[in-house]
Amino acid sequence: MSERSEQELLHDLAERFGIVPDYYDNWGCQHLTSDRTKRAILAAMGLCVGTADELRRELAACETEPWRQPCDPVVVLRTGENPGCWSFRMPVESGEGQDVRIRWELRDEAGRLRHSGESAAPLVPVETHVVDARPYARFEVPVPSGLAIGYYDLRAHGMTPSRVVEGTLRLILVPPRCYVAPQFREGSRIWGLSLQLYALRSSRNWGVGDFGDLAELVEWSANDLGAGVIGLSPLHALKNTRPSHISPYAPDSRLYLNVLYLDVERIPEYAECPKAQQMLADTGFRSRLEALKKSEIVDYDQVYAVKQTILEALFDTFQERHLTGDGSDPQPCTNRGRTFRQYVREEGDALEAFALFQVLTEEMHRRHPLVRGWQDWPEPYRHPTAAAVAQFRATHAPRVRFYQYLQWVASEQLAGVAEQARSLGMPIGLYHDLALADDRSGSDAWMFQDVLALQADCGCPPDAFAPEGQNWGLPPVIPFRLRASGYRMFIELLRNNLKYGGALRLDHVMGLFRLFWIPHGLPASAGAYVRYPAEDLLGIVALESVRHQAVIVGEDLGTVPDWVRERLAASGVLSYRVFYFERTGDGECKAPHAYPDQAVAVVTTHDLPTLTGFWTAEDIQVRGRLGLYPDDTARRLAWEERRQVKEGVLRALKAQGLLPDGLTEDLSTVPCMTPELCYAIHLYLARTPCWMVLATLDDLLEELAQANLPGTVDSYPNWSRKLARSLEELRGDLRLKQLAAELRMLRPRI
User: Fold this and answer.
1) Where are the domains of the chain?
2) I want to staple 698 with a disulfide (CB 3.0 to 4.6 A). Which of 547, 693, 703, 705 is the partner?
């Protein structure tokens, strides 16, 4: 038999590591994954694939390395199904087969022993293999029945007359479906508002919407409007520096919160801190705040600077009044101090690493002003477990504690708003958004660099929205390394983002199944899909959803195969349906009854034009001015498509008897978006069976500009525009109250 060619070896290795050989775009065209792309993706995963010999060695490792590990790193099983088995591998010499014994114990998350056992002899291997001329055998051991959902640590010992082999694995028992709110099971359908928190104006905030504003908006929405949910863009921690580090979808960390949203004057230490009060009373300081409040855009850098000045004073007061000790290891002396220490203990290594990264970033910027990311730091500081990092931590303990304090008070404020929403009877309350990935220069990338492909980006293939494809500039997770870690990063992300509300939206949910990788140096159109362990990930999502009693929403827009949506639906994940995109085969708007019930319906998203901008084609005009169309023909086609869609909207409204008085299907009678037309579109969505309908404040307030214009960085004020009206003005807006009254009739809150 002839030796396999290098191309065959490459294709085999690519298949083993989940690189999909082809895909079909939105137009039904097949795209084959090139050998160059396969090789580049494998290299980004950390494999050596430059020559045929290297390919052979990697393939050989695929065959042998699993046998050297007594246990799989993790096993995910669903309750209600066959309990299943776990595997144990060990060397078994000739004649020892009848003498193999496996002894094991199973402990829960608290370390309590739940089960133990020993296999009965003789054990019969289910598979054998030879590694380096040594015979190995794999045995299967049944998982104990009756286990509750949760995480378990299993330790096992395989014994023969000549050796003892020890192995460990993480066993995860998951429910078959995500949590479903009782109201939805009982047939209730709710509505709510969605917004960008930074965009809120108020008489008391410091130039950016904050958690205090959110609390007021929740109170008004629940009591005056009858809303059941408040949808928020990600509140993830950012560097808060314009223009490249303000996108909530490219955060510094998805584990922790953006302290820019802190309502500084509501932090308890403010009332105890004369220094902070004096600073705030200073005429110059007040003038800076007034300028930030009056600005039409959020000045992230300046808002963060003024808040940090006060926050440092509050932290000093906190240490003086609530902690005691020598400064290097303070002990709590008040209930508030004890609460802080408990928070730090519960957050553990993740918070420690996050806070330490912030301090390292400050120090590295001081030492090396031109250094941008941790990849350019001096080598001893590039990994969180390095000795130099531990030494740095020991000498900077108070500053590390400052950043832990900031996260604690942010957690207090957001948790308080979530509790307020529940106490006001909101069925869902806060609806959060988990971004797909992190900025490669951020703390999460530093902390989890061992599971990230830092030499590749994720994005999406060519489609009607982006004919050349999209590169989001974010590093993808390496599937086999994520699994080898016991899914630690994924679990922590879910837990931290499910703490503060009743629903969580997973951005680009198809990433649970497959993600479009773009190796560095290649265009987006040359990317390829990589498969992920979807069944394991969906199971963990369901487990954390049930534990937190929070609904899961999957953002399933773009190139999403039908089978993915079917599997998500079976797992209890709500679909995300955008009015602009819900079309029949002939291009008409889907009738309300054609929407799925297990879904969230919205008119638009942060990456799309507002209703007012859509109707006037403001987005097309802006894209044209910025040169984002390849030629005039593409721009004319966009105008023509927009005209057709708007005509379809008018026809759909007429068919439902919702076309406002005085309007006809003739576009010339509707040159711009009107409040009545805006409300009609929202009532159209309210008639769908979707469990939730969200109306964006931008649409209800007739905002023209969209929050984010994909494909731009500094040529458009992304993630910066404030609403034209303040919270105080919103309370008196009769049009909002009128629409809310009609939505309540269609979707009464139980």
Assistant:
1) 6-66, 80-174
2) 703
